[in-house]
Amino acid sequence: MGTRSSKPQKQAHVLMLGLDGSGKTTLLYKLKFNESVWTVQTVGFNVESLDIDRSSLALTLWDIGGQRKMRPYWKHFYPDAAGVLFVVDSWDQKRLEEARKELHRVTKHHKHKPSN
């Protein structure tokens, strides 16, 4: 006899990237708890697992800080990622060009990633 939870789940790691202050942590906790929570600037990263009803997939979201000094380290998180969620604060018109450049840098890195 087995239960649904006894089945091994597939793991999927998703990176949440974007400029500092773009709303990554707010989005992470909205997805996790389905409510808006007060957050502070992320120094480093936050990691949360999402419970997905009726799914054999365990989803882990990595919210990685978006400060300029942190962005060069994003590439070290790519190898284990099943996907990237790039968050843009469309209200912050002054930084849209900077966000575009960072997103371009992320996608450029993936294009040159060696295939297995």
UniProtKB/TrEMBL annotation:
<feature type="binding site">
    <location>
        <position position="66"/>
    </location>
    <ligand>
        <name>GTP</name>
    </ligand>
</feature>
<keyword id="KW-0460">Magnesium</keyword>
<protein>
    <recommendedName>
        <fullName>ADP-ribosylation factor-like 14</fullName>
    </recommendedName>
</protein>
<dbReference type="Pfam" id="PF00025">
    <property type="entry name" value="Arf"/>
</dbReference>
<dbReference type="InterPro" id="IPR027417">
    <property type="entry name" value="P-loop_NTPase"/>
</dbReference>
<dbReference type="GO" id="GO:0016192">
    <property type="term" value="P:vesicle-mediated transport"/>
</dbReference>
<comment type="similarity">
    <text>Belongs to the small GTPase superfamily. Arf family.</text>
</comment>
<keyword id="KW-0931">ER-Golgi transport</keyword>
<keyword id="KW-0519">Myristate</keyword>
<dbReference type="GO" id="GO:0046872">
    <property type="term" value="F:metal ion binding"/>
</dbReference>
<feature type="binding site">
    <location>
        <begin position="18"/>
        <end position="25"/>
    </location>
    <ligand>
        <name>GTP</name>
    </ligand>
</feature>
<keyword id="KW-0333">Golgi apparatus</keyword>
<dbReference type="GO" id="GO:0005525">
    <property type="term" value="F:GTP binding"/>
</dbReference>
<keyword id="KW-0449">Lipoprotein</keyword>
<feature type="binding site">
    <location>
        <position position="25"/>
    </location>
    <ligand>
        <name>Mg(2+)</name>
    </ligand>
</feature>
<dbReference type="InterPro" id="IPR006689">
    <property type="entry name" value="Small_GTPase_ARF/SAR"/>
</dbReference>
<keyword id="KW-0653">Protein transport</keyword>
<keyword id="KW-0479">Metal-binding</keyword>
<feature type="binding site">
    <location>
        <position position="42"/>
    </location>
    <ligand>
        <name>Mg(2+)</name>
    </ligand>
</feature>
<dbReference type="InterPro" id="IPR005225">
    <property type="entry name" value="Small_GTP-bd"/>
</dbReference>
<dbReference type="GO" id="GO:0005794">
    <property type="term" value="C:Golgi apparatus"/>
</dbReference>
<dbReference type="InterPro" id="IPR024156">
    <property type="entry name" value="Small_GTPase_ARF"/>
</dbReference>
<dbReference type="GO" id="GO:0003924">
    <property type="term" value="F:GTPase activity"/>
</dbReference>
<keyword id="KW-0813">Transport</keyword>
<dbReference type="GO" id="GO:0015031">
    <property type="term" value="P:protein transport"/>
</dbReference>
<keyword id="KW-0342">GTP-binding</keyword>
<keyword id="KW-0547">Nucleotide-binding</keyword>
